[in-house]
Design goal:
There is one protein chain. By secondary structure, this protein is α/β, with parallel strands linked by helices. The chain has three domains: about 130 residues, NAD(P)-binding Rossmann-like Domain (Rossmann fold); about 140 residues, Succinyl-CoA synthetase domains (Rossmann fold, 3-Layer(aba) Sandwich), CATH 3.40.50.261; about 150 residues, Rossmann fold. The protein has 16 helices and 19 strands.
């Protein structure tokens, strides 16, 4: 597996001089990312980006750790045979046109499996966009950096059967300035599947949180679960193909069988996998897990400057079974010393529509320093004119209590500037109280 993510030498089979071709974009990624032992393979070109071109990997005298294949499906078996003969360790097949298109495609996939069956060559794909590693800079994505941003280094790793879902998540992470470790789109998964990828990421030192978009399992579900239960890191899964028509769409997308959704959900719950029910939950949960400390329990305090938002958060917390203990009389007396008489010192604590940064500081500090709460949902509506920008610094300071702090804040330019500062300091921010509460609940579910 290491040769996929940390190759010393790379061949791009189907590299092209045409800037619009997938092979050109992939080759250019490696070229711009500083890889020196880089070999473009194209029988119709002498050089690409100033680098000598070869008609076949067999002409390359150097050993090849990783080959990326981006040629028409009908000649993939030929170039894969050459890779095997060359003893290439790892191959990413970008090419589509296999089991996802029907019986002829399935036959070609079986041919590829036969080619690697008695040697050490391993395959990711076909019908995928492959790998992006923020640390090693391996980048097989055929999507231009102008259209699909590459996230900075971080601790989230993501595997996806769908290249479209995967690349969109990458672009959103890039836009939100959220770092990742590794991304793998494995498409039809004829060799390396979600099971081996999860097992690998479970041992990967730069990965703290694992995300997965699954349409169906490529191998025995029991083997998958046996491997997963040994992984101690949070695994967040978005499973698609839950409806009848969605299940049929899965078959024509990656050639997978979607399976019974209730069985998947039950197994996920039993083996400690966090299931995201919506696309945004996959993102929301990953941000919470990648930034927040382990909660010691499920007692939360909600602090707000908007009563309605506080009520919505309370409803969601109660629905999910989170506890909202009333502050003790001692804590109330401590808060009352600096709060106006009209502030509501129950739970949620409503700092009211003339809230100040100082009120937030006191409320958050007193609650988190006490033994009464395991974390806080802070609803900060910057539309309130009395809330100064320094409230952001006060919230960040409260990280010292080593309890989860999750913020709900939504608005236009001014609000977005404050939210970006919070996010840059590893305080997750969500646009609705319900999403903030669900993210906190996901933390509690995994660590309880």
């Amino acid at each position: 597996m290491q040769h996929f993510f940390n190759p010393k030498s790379i061949a791009v089979i189907g590299a092209s001089r045409d800037e619009g071709k997938l092979g050109h974009i992939i080759f250019k990624n490696f070229f711009e990312n500083g890889f020196k032992r880089l070999y473009p393979i194209n029988p119709n070109a002498d050089e690409i980006l100033g680098i000598k071109c070869y008609k076949s990997v067999l002409e390359v005298k150097d050993n090849i750790d990783l080959a990326v294949i981006a040629v028409p499906a009908k000649i993939v078996s030929q170039v894969l045979t050459e890779c095997v003969k060359k003893k290439v360790n790892s191959v990413v097949i970008i090419s589509s046109g296999f089991s996802e298109i029907g019986e002829e495609g399935k036959r070609m996939e079986e041919e590829l499996k036969g080619i690697i069956s008695k040697n050490k060559t391993r395959i990711i794909g076909p019908n995928c966009i492959g790998i992006y590693d923020a640390y090693s800079k391996v980048d097989t994505l055929f999507l231009s950096k102008e259209r699909c941003g590459r996230p900075k280094k971080g601790n989230i790793s993501f595997i996806s059967q769908s290249g479209a879902v995967g690349s969109t998540v990458l672009d959103v992470f890039y836009n939100m300035d959220i770092g990742i470790s590794k991304f793998v789109s494995y498409g039809n998964g004829i060799d390396i599947t979600e099971t081996e990828l999860l097992e690998f990421l479970g041992k990967d030192k730069s990965t703290k949180v694992i995300l997965a978009y699954l349409e169906g399992l490529k191998k025995d579900g029991r083997i998958f679960l046996e491997k997963v239960k040994k992984i101690k890191k949070p695994i967040i899964v978005l499973k698609s193909g839950k409806s009848d028509k969605g299940s049929k769409a899965v078959s024509s997308h990656t050639g997978s069988l979607a399976g019974e959704s209730k069985i998947y959900s039950s197994a996920f719950k039993q083996f400690g996998i966090i299931e995201a029910n919506r696309w945004e939950e996959l993102l929301d949960y990953s941000i919470a897990f990648s930034t927040q400390p382990v909660p010691r329990g499920n007692r939360i305090v909600i602090i707000t400057d908007g009563g309605g938002f506080g009520i919505l958060a309370t409803d969601e917390a109660e629905r999910l079974g989170l506890l909202l203990p009333e502050p003790s009389e001692k804590l109330k007396r401590s808060l009352a010393k600096t709060m106006p008489t009209y502030a509501s010192l129950h739970n949620p604590i409503d700092l009211t529509g003339d809230a100040t940064a100082e009120r937030y500081k006191i409320a958050l500090k007193e609650c988190l320093s006490s033994k009464e709460y395991d974390g806080a949902i802070v609803i900060c509506l910057f539309q309130v004119p009395t809330v100064e920008e320094k409230v952001v610094d006060y919230i960040i300071e409260c990280k010292k209590f080593r309890k989860p702090i999750i913020v709900c804040s939504v608005g236009s330019d001014f609000t977005e500037r404050q939210n970006k500062k919070l996010m840059a300091n590893n305080i997750p921010v969500y646009p609705t109280p319900e999403r903030a509460v669900r993210a906190f609940h996901a933390l509690v579910r995994f660590y309880k």
